[in-house]
Amino acid sequence: MKKASSVEDYLAELPGDSRATLENVRAAIRAAAPEAEEKIAYGMPGFYIGGHPLVYYAAFKAHCSFFPASGTVVDSFADELAGYDVAKGTIRFPIGEPPPATLIRKIVKARMKEQAARHYR
Fold it and tell me: Mind giving me the DSSP string for the chain?
């Protein structure tokens, strides 16, 4: 995949199943954080609030990932993420099988709360 200059370009370059999966993830993030700015960073789509990274998401050859960029937040949802491949700040899932939108929204809201406490005291 060539380096995308916009989120739309990034998604347009993906195979259909990966694109549909990430569009679902994107919609859930946007629903939880409508005020967030979306842009490409580190070669993948991300959402930012006040210039600070909130979350990222990406497609890979055999899976997709959602990056809350916080091991603390990911750990706080350990029970709900039990069926996923989870590492510090990263949630991996099969193409076509993203976490439920309600869970993504809850994780994004938790990240927003964490970010607000850190950057906007």
Answer: -PPPSSHHHHHHTS-HHHHHHHHHHHHHHHHH-TT-EEEEETTEEEEEETTEEEEEEEE-SS-EEEE-S-HHHHHHTTTTTTTSEEETTEEEE-TT-PPPHHHHHHHHHHHHHHHHHHH--
Q: What is the pTM of this model?
A: 0.93
pLDDT, tens digit (0-9, with 9 covering 90-100), for 2-43: 688 899 999 999 999 999 999 999 999 999 999 999 999 999
Residue 21: inside a domain, yes or no? yes
What range defines the domain where residue 50 resides? 7-119
* CATH number of the domain residue 85 falls in: 3.90.1150.200
